[in-house]
Specification:
This protein is mostly beta strands and 119 residues long. Helices cover 0% and strands 54% of the residues. It has strands spanning 3-7, 10-12, 18-25, 33-39, 46-51, 57-59, 67-72, 77-82, 91-100, 105-109, 113-117. The strands form two sheets. Strands 2, 4, 5, 6, 9, 10 and 11 form a seven-stranded mixed sheet that branches. Strand 7 and strand 8 (77-82) form a beta hairpin. It is elongated and about 45 Å long. The relative contact order is 0.32.
Length: 119
C-alpha cells in the first residue's frame, strides 16, 4: 500500500510563506501524478496543485499565482511553496498520488497537515 508522509504545515502570518513536502513510499505503479489538495472547515476539498511525471504542474484557480509545486522523481517527493498566504488559505492540506489506467484510477491520500494563516 502506498504511503504518503507530509511535513511542513503550521501557523504563519498573513503575507507569509510556507513550504509543504510529501514523500511517497511503496509506490509500485508508474507513471503517476503527485500533488496537493486542501479542505477548509465546512468546505469541499479543492485542488491546490498537481505535478505529472514530466514535471508539468497544474494549479487551482484560487492559488495559481501564489504557489509553486515541484517534484523529485528519484526521491518520490512533491513540494509546495506557498507565498503571500491569506487567512482564506487556512485548511488541512492533503498530499495526493494517482496512477491512472484506462479502466481505473489508483489514488492515495496522506493524513493531511494543518496550515493556519492568522495574525
Amino acid at each position: 500500500q502506498v504511503q504518503l508522509v507530509e511535513s511542513g504545515g503550521g501557523l504563519v502570518q498573513p503575507g507569509g510563506s510556507l513550504r509543504l513536502s510529501c514523500a511517497a513510499f511503496k509506490v509500485i505503479r508508474t507513471p503517476y501524478i503527485m500533488g496537493w489538495y486542501r479542505q477548509a472547515s465546512g468546505k469541499e476539498r479543492e485542488l491546490v496543485a498537481t505535478v505529472d511525471s514530466g514535471g508539468v504542474a497544474r494549479y487551482g484557480d484560487s492559488v495559481k499565482d501564489r504557489v509553486t509545486a515541484s517534484r523529485d522523481i528519484v526521491r518520490n517527493t512533491v513540494s509546495l511553496q506557498m507565498n503571500s498566504l491569506e487567512p482564506e488559505d487556512s485548511a488541512v492540506y492533503f498530499c495526493y498520488l494517482v496512477h491512472r489506467t484506462l479502466s481505473q484510477d489508483y489514488d492515495y491520500w496522506g493524513q493531511g497537515t494543518q496550515v493556519t494563516v492568522s495574525s
